[in-house]
Design goal:
This protein is of the alpha/beta class. The protein is built from seven helices and eleven strands. The protein has one domain: Rossmann fold.
């Protein structure tokens, strides 16, 4: 089942002589439950592509369909709702709230959306990330790998359709990186979600179901692993 489809997606910053064409006619189709890695040199358009899919920026041309709905046609209000309810974001910076403990950080997106917290679901996520004995700890009482696990759990808390990760293991050592990727793969399998991740790590891309190369704003076809 197709969850994401982009057609002729383009993004340009600036105008005329100073225009920078960050993304050029990007076409991509991703099925539900897939793990897709996006690779390419710095400045190739990877983060821009992720931001467009996540509704953090708007495209100049093209369409982005998530579950059959074109988010490019959404109002700002509907796009904000889409970001809260349909997308889970994981970044290299953990962005945890320092005065909130592990459970509170994980539950935050649900509470911000004024929804009732599904305690059983959150308990399951905390067990999945292996931090049952640390759910009352503050971020500064956790290791980098543990903080990233919390960030992953937070991205899952609102039961999103798609998870977008921008170099989520960039600050971690190789052992912790492997543990985090295995955790992400287990999570998307367990909760039937889709993961699209930017990475420069070849070992990570080898674990993906498919790889998308971006060079000078152009996407290549996915390569099956």
């Amino acid at each position: 089942m197709k969850i994401l489809e982009t057609v002729n997606l383009s993004k340009t910053y600036g105008k005329k002589d100073i225009a920078v064409h960050t993304l050029r006619g990007a076409n991509l189709s991703v099925n539900k439950g897939e793990f897709v890695a996006i690779v390419g040199p710095s400045g190739s358009g990877k983060s821009t592509f992720l931001h467009l899919i996540g509704g953090l920026e708007r495209a100049n041309t093209g369409t982005i369909k998530i579950n059959g709905k074109d988010i490019c046609c959404m109002s700002d209000k509907d796009l904000a709702k889409y970001r809260r309810q349909e997308v889970g974001f994981i970044f290299q910076q953990y962005n945890l709230i320092p005065v909130l403990n592990v459970r509170e950080n994980i539950e935050l997106p649900v509470k911000l959306d004024k929804h009732e917290v599904d305690k059983e679901y959150i308990d399951g996520i905390i067990r999945t990330i292996g931090l049952e004995d640390r759910e009352k700890h503050l971020p500064n009482q956790l290791s980098g790998g543990q903080q990233q696990r919390v960030a992953i759990a937070r991205s899952l808390s609102s039961k999103p359709s798609i998870i977008l990760a921008d170099e989520p293991t960039g600050k971690l050592d190789s052992k912790t990186t492997g543990e985090v990727i295995d955790l992400l793969k287990e999570s998307i399998r367990k909760y039937n979600q889709t993961l699209i991740m930017i990475t420069h790590n070849e070992a990570i891309s080898e674990k993906a179901d498919g790889v998308i190369n971006i060079i000078d704003g152009k996407l290549s076809e996915a390569v099956s692993q």
